Amino acid sequence: MEYTYTVTCFEAGQTLVSFKQPPASLENPALTETKSSWHQFLTDFFADGSLPPSALQAIFEPMRTPTVDSMMVVGQLGQTMDGRIATVTGQSKYINGQSGLTHLHQLRALLDTVVVGVGTALADDPLLNVRLVSGKHPARVVIDPKGKLSPTARVWTADGARRLWIVSEGIEVSAPEGVEVVALPALGGRIEPRDILSSLAGKGLKRILLEGGAETVSRFLQAGCLDRLHLIVAPILMGSGRASLNLPAIEHMDQALRLQVHTHQLGNEVLFDCDLSPQRVKIA
């Protein structure tokens, strides 16, 4: 059976893109493998020795061993073909299909900490746990310099995982029971990515998934605080909306960041695994 999906620009009432997509069970080799052998892969990933060749191994092997220091920091963004992660109103559920969402949950299961900025926490009210695959829930961290997030946000749900609320020094929040409040120095209302990673490393959290949003991932990228960036591109054109990255303007193309990239097909989406380790700074 074949399914046809249509992407529509609601403001203009025009169909921008139509594409055909097979059922999720058939569309993605890594997803198909997940259903039969993900548990074994998870065990092998954290064990000593090499990983057996597989679709999963090809995607996740590069993040298995740190290369700069003791940390592994992976950014993740899901975007349209024209580089948008949300509409102009901030709505983003869901740009990526089943394959892309499964990949995200695989990342959560393989890394011990998931970090988001307060903008993402406010807009999406995410759980940030592992649901689409088996695996341990990661520690959950929200970067919230001004303490805007509600104590009742779903990210603070008690489920056995550590929960950390990063705020600026001098900011007081009413943290739910069990939530660790981490106060760090801020400049201009922002906390330096390097200080955030150093603090997390000091708490034993060294395998980090930076899940969003665009401003947070952009700041870590600009600061040289990412080892890898997983960019999943969906076959969608929006024509407007919020950009996936927001970096300082450049005047010449030789100033652009040129990446070492491996691509992987995730059904009808494409994963760009970008190696940023050459520019990654060491974390104290």
What can you see in these coordinates?
- By secondary structure, the protein is of the alpha/beta class.
- It has seven helices and 13 strands.
- It has helices at residues 24-27, 29-45, 55-60, 98-110, 118-124, 193-202, 214-222, and strands spanning 3-9, 14-21, 72-79, 84-86, 113-117, 139-143, 163-168, 179-184, 207-212, 228-233, 242-243, 260-266, 269-275.
- Strand 1 (3-9) and strand 2 form a beta hairpin.
- The protein is globular and about 50 Å long.
- The model is unreliable at 1-27 (pLDDT under 50).
What is the element layout, followed by pairings?
Blueprint lengths: L2 E7 L4 E8 L2 H4 L1 H17 L9 H6 L11 E8 L4 E3 L11 H13 L2 E5 H7 L14 E5 L19 E6 L10 E6 L8 H10 L4 E6 L1 H9 L5 E6 L8 E2 L16 E7 L2 E7 L9
Note the total helix count. Answer: 7
* Largest beta sheet: strand ordering: 8-7-6-5-9-3-10-13-12
DSSP helix fraction: 10-25%
Q: Separation of termini?
A: 54 Å
Structural category: alpha/beta
Q: What is the beta-strand fraction?
A: 25-35%
Overall outline: globular
**Any idea what the radius of gyration is?**
19 Å
The total strand number stands at: 13
